[in-house]
């Protein structure tokens, strides 16, 4: 999963995430992933980064949680560690689809997963900031817009449906706090939409306007609470507020906030990949060839071992 710079490893990783995305569409598979009574012990390897201590590179996860939480850890790890120049749009699309499928299942069955959602939100904010920076007035611009629609769709699901699967009201406070703290990312998405909406390409203009509409709730939250925070600071004669004071402002000003309820939150926005079928074919071929090589090597090793045993006897 970590090294996807080569064509073979990229195709294999892409196929694996596509399989995971399709599997999590099915209620029975999602039910198994959210089962609390299954015993397991897993170790999740994490990429070596500057800010990570060596002890954090191998994360032990066991049956005190669900397989869904481990899968979310895997998704967050990929989202955070593959922000590269040759950006794997398609794999990121599968990751976001998988995340959406898990959240939809949790909401539908009122499953309140014991999970630190802030790490997922951080990964999504970092991803949004990165793809806006790499966007170019070319074919990649359309992919960026489609990917941003998926990201904003996940945030909208948390904002409008979170009461059905988040652990409690305090998690909503954390979500709104992170949106306010990452106001620059929300503004960056807004500016990118406005820039792209002036394009001569009709498809780009259409998708940019749709994204602008989708991100209305995020902008509304930032605008509403920034005004309340500024008013609180002015009234209290404070240059800046502490985290606790910001949380207090958030809790006291939910009532005046107006948000839009989306009817098509379950809609998935496919990324434009004309050669997707060929990529999948190449990945399957590579996996078959690897399996054959493994079987051949194992057979040769067994034959060598049998020859040694026959000499001993």
Describe this entry's structure for a reader.
Its main location: membrane. It comes from Schistocephalus solidus (Tapeworm). Keywords: Membrane, Transmembrane, Transmembrane helix. The chain has helices at residues 7-23, 27-33, 67-81, 89-108, 117-134, 139-161, 169-181, 183-196, 202-214, 216-236, 243-252, 276-312; strands at 41-45, 58-62. It contains 12 helices and 2 strands, in the order ααββαααααααααα. The longest helix is centred in the last third of the chain and has 37 residues, at 276-312. α1 runs parallel beside α4, α3 packs parallel to α5 (117-134) and α6 packs parallel to α9 (202-214). It has 2 domains: 1-115, no CATH class; 116-260 and 271-282, no CATH class. The chain is mainly alpha-helical and 313 residues long. Strands 1-2 form a two-stranded antiparallel sheet.
Strand order in space, largest sheet: 1-2
Give the ordered list of helices and strands: HHEEHHHHHHHHHH
Low-confidence segments: none
- For the record, give the distance between the C-alpha atoms at the N and C termini, rounded to a whole number: 46 Å
InterPro entries: ARMD3-like, ARMH3_C
Pfam families: ARMH3_C (PF08427)
Main location: membrane
Protein name: UPF0668 protein C10orf76 homolog
């Amino acid at each position: 999963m970590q090294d996807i710079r080569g064509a073979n490893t990229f195709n294999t990783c892409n196929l694996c995430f596509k399989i995971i995305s399709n599997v999590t569409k099915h209620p029975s598979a999602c039910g198994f992933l959210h089962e609390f009574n299954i015993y397991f012990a897993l170790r999740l390897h994490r990429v070596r980064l500057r800010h990570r201590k060596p002890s954090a590179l191998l994360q032990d996860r066991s049956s005190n949680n669900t397989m869904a939480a481990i899968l979310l850890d895997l998704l967050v790890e990929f989202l955070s560690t593959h922000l590269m120049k040759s950006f794997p749009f398609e794999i990121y699309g599968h990751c976001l689809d998988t995340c959406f499928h898990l959240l939809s299942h949790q909401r539908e069955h009122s499953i309140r997963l014991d999970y630190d959602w802030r790490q997922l939100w951080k990964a999504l904010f970092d991803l949004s900031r990165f793809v806006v920076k790499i966007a170019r007035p070319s074919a990649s611009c359309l992919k960026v817009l489609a990917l941003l629609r998926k990201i904003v769709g996940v945030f909208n699901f948390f904002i409008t449906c979170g009461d059905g699967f988040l652990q409690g009201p305090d998690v909503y406070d954390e979500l709104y706090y992170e949106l306010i703290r990452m106001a620059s990312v929300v503004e960056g998405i807004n500016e990118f939409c406005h820039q792209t909406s002036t394009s001569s390409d009709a498809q780009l203009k259409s998708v940019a306007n749709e994204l602008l509409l989708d991100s209305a709730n995020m902008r509304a939250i930032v605008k509403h609470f920034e005004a309340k925070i500024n008013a609180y600071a002015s009234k209290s004669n404070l240059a800046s507020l502490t985290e606790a004071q910001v949380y207090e402002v958030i809790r006291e000003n939910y009532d005046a906030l107006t948000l839009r309820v989306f009817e098509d939150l379950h809609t998935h926005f496919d990324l434009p990949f004309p050669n997707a079928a060929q990529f999948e074919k190449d990945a399957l071929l590579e996996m078959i060839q690897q399996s054959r090589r493994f079987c051949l090597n194992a057979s040769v090793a067994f034959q060598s071992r049998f020859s040694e045993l026959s000499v001993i006897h």
